[in-house]
Amino acid sequence: MKADVGLIGLAVMGQNLVLNMNDKGFSVAVYNRTPSVTEEFLSGPAKGRTTIVGAKSLEDFVAKLASPRKIILLVKAGEAVDETIARITPLLDQGDLVIDSGNSYFEDSERRAAELAAKGLLYIGTGVSGGEEGARNGPSMMPGGASAAWPLVKGLFEATSAKTDKGEPCCAWIGNGGSGHFVKMVHNGIEYGDMQLIAETYQLMRDFAGLDYLQMAAAFRAWNETELDSYLVEITADILRYRDSDDSPLAERILDAAGQKGTGKWMSQSALDAGVPLTLITEAVYARALSALLEERRAAAPILSGPGEKERKALAAGVDRAETLELLRKALLAAKIVSYAQGFMLLRDVSKERGWSLDFGSIALTWRGGCIIRSVFLDRIKEAFDRERGLASILIDPYFASLLADCQKALRRVVALSAEAGIPSPALASALAFYDGYRSAKLPANLIQAQRDYFGAHTYERTDRPRGEWFHTDWTGKGGKAVSGTYNA
Predict the structure, then answer these.
(1) Which of 18, 48, 338, 413 has an alpha carbon 20 to 30 Å from 207's alpha carbon atom?
(2) Is 357 helix (H, G, I), strand (E, B) or coil?
(3) Are 56 and 35 a contacting pair, CB within 8 Å?
(4) Whole-prediction pTM value?
(5) Backbone angles phi, psi at 98, to 5 degrees
(6) The dihedral of CA 329, 333, 338, 340: what is its sign?
(7) Phi and psi of 77, rounded to 5°?
(8) Which residues are catalytic?
(9) Cα(164)–Cα(174) distance, rounded to whole angstroms?
(10) CB of 261 within 8 A of CB of 103?
(11) Cis bond leading into 68, ω under 30°?
(12) 10 Å Cβ neighbour count for 327?
């Protein structure tokens, strides 16, 4: 009997996904380039599961699969994926399917889909979110690529994925080419924003409000019963409550230098290419970069002036603690809405540019369970796009507009208090700046256009003329009529 599906790459995610698929009734062939890893898996976590079979070579692995073969790759993004595909494709027949379930860059997935199609092979680039726990018990899955491949794995993916409270699979076909990995990239970017907003809120609780770790944990736990109900808020309460071996807060002993694997940076770069103002998430990426300048920050701390502990205590004394916590909760909620709004704006613009026709409500449902940004919040986003499929921004949906009307004053107050207290809050401040910019019928870009035309003859449009008509002024009386041409990079 041949296996239903094969998986290459038995690191933590690979092993847990194999066990998950096997639990759902699928037989799985496995291969790892280091044979001992395969042997350890078969004699350890997979012991006694006769429907999980190991292979000692790629040839043996391919031979163990039922046709059309379905092969999942869970190897390091980049060259390792290309190398694995190059090694395995000569062993495959037309109509076989290669599934890249790693954190690949979506442009790489676009290229791989085209290259494999030229060889008569099918390709799916699948974003998988949820970490080790999600892989084992049900992740959020975002497949995109060759549409002919979806019927081959629809049952497998829907069975393996997480489920909403209503039993709906957190998995849906995204679209062609690299769309699946693009949506996963946006998911990860929103994750960056969420984590930074929570971190800034934590710092304000600690350094402004003066809460201890158990008090902060209790606040996040209580917030998780509100509109902020989410995985990241839930685990933040757990983290802040956790004690080290000497009963002191473990979080306080963790070095304040954050790492990153690049998906947030990819999203910011994509936003710049598309001309989408992804300000909050980009600030979150930069905040991690700033945190990495640990030694420079430590050297600058005693030199650069600003409000200190004395000033913070004096400022905090004028605000009731319960009031401060409610301000922080509402500010976090308002900023979170802005973060998601920016993410969906990028999805909208790139979908239009690539011709993907992404279903934003379906994507929100896909993120509803199993993934790192799962939250009740996403149900409301799905409902917003169900009400208006062509919604320009969730900010103007009645539900979210009402929430923002209630919370925006708290966000203003928190950003102001942060500035007065000298506590950095780049993501919270960015959320407010974007909100105010987006609600402004008139911005000062008219002056920027005048400046560009003054020094570079870049031309401008006029408010009293139709859009698309361009004008140039000889501002000094010494210039000519020549213009540089109108374009947007």
Answers:
(1) 338
(2) coil
(3) yes
(4) 0.92
(5) -110, 130
(6) positive
(7) -60, 150
(8) 184, 191
(9) 18
(10) yes
(11) yes
(12) 22
